[in-house]
Queue: 3 jobs
Job 1
Amino acid sequence: MNTFRSGHRGSYEFEKGSIRTIIISQEKGINALVGCPKRHFHDDRYEAGMNVLSYLFAKENG
């Protein structure tokens, strides 16, 4: 997918291997990169939950 990226945070702020792409709206072509912030991964769990690194917008949707 060709996308525009609206970056917010650097990948260095997140636990290695925790970054994922999620679909926010398939119809509108909006996805997000999410990950667990560093120092919030304990006992094989992400205690702080997943935070957004950036949003991805499909070019064909403007």
Job 2
Amino acid sequence: MKRHLLSFLMVIAFLIIATASSVQKNETSRFVMGKGKKESGPDRIELYDGRVIEMNELTFSGKLFGKTYVETNEGRIPWKEVRAFKRDGIYYLHYGGMELKRIIHGRINVYAEDYVRESTEYNTRTQQSVQRRHYLIRYHYQRDGGPVILLVDQSGIEKAVAGCKPALDMVNVPFKTFRKSVRKNRNYINQVFERFNSECK
């Protein structure tokens, strides 16, 4: 009896966590990645010292003494010196050991990050815990060249576009209204930031 009660309570707890996660997902995982909207110009790398090196095709070398290098016309550049790069028309920010893909460009840049989250799920039938890997995307923004900030929820989007009334009006609404707009229009969150970039220069 106690074992069945414990299993039931664990299922309830898991459902509560899953529900909370789904609410968060509905807010900030609905960016449209902008496939096909490639940036023009040659491949390039931007270094922390301010230099920009352009090339016809950006290639990376393998491991050399434990470090990855970028092959350029000026020789090999250590990966740790690269602040950002553009390859095949896609711009990436090298940040905290991650490669963040830029999907919105302007006063506010929005970046997408692929990451893996591991979780433990309890199987009530076998009464065993199962490890699972979830391949997800999370988003970051950078305003006016400032710090890179993780976008977590609706209030985070409000902070990102603060001071821009046209964009803020799209977000500063009750949660249910905001969620309904996002579900109805798959471009809605993109449009919040695009409106900031076009109307609040």
Job 3
Amino acid sequence: MKVVWDVDGPLRDMSRFKKEAMLRAGERLGFKDYVERYDDKTVWKSYGLAQLLARRGWGRGFEAWIGLFWGHAEKGLDIRETLSHPQPEKIVEKVVKRPPKEVVKELQDYVHSKLEEGEKVKNIEEALELFPNLGIITASQPGNIPRWLKRHGLWNYFRESEIIEGVENKAEAMLRLAQRYGSYIYVGDSHSDLEDVIEVNKYVPLYMVLVDGMALEGKVRELLENNDFKNLVFAPNAYEGLLRIKNILKS
């Protein structure tokens, strides 16, 4: 069994830069003080809700993300309560605002400028040694991931792997790998990742490690209740999750 990785969350920690980016947007639109209330982890998780909005047709990810914070700030709502709600999209639909395009572009450009500075997740080498690594699937700009892997001493783990960057439809890319190589383990950190794995699992059986990150607990429960997907392991990090799958496969 081999492993396919999402990058941000499981491999690379971008939470500090995501908060810095939102602070910049908040300064432009008047809600910087609101963003400062929250820690990096909360701001990171909020991007998972923005992904959900984007998948439901509300703009693109960064646009929805700014609109999410801006709307919550103006309504005086605690974004943590929305993130923990069983159906957060019902709250968000009433508060999200459409941000100016130039602010969206500034935030996006800032995040992209920091991609190579993102820190590798603690003890990630231990996780990378548990299974052969089949590849990486990411929406990051083409060319970014090899440079980042080399900068952080991880390139040897992926030298023979498929690195698929600039992906808009992750499920399609995941399915192509599965059709070519068969079953694998996917390591992600969002309910959107889980949604994609469940879709691909209809055609080729997959395992998944869902690490603590952007996943919204209510949406994860909903997905599992409505789909027959059993090969899921929740874990605080990739190492613990992959170790559990290794033990499952041995038994």
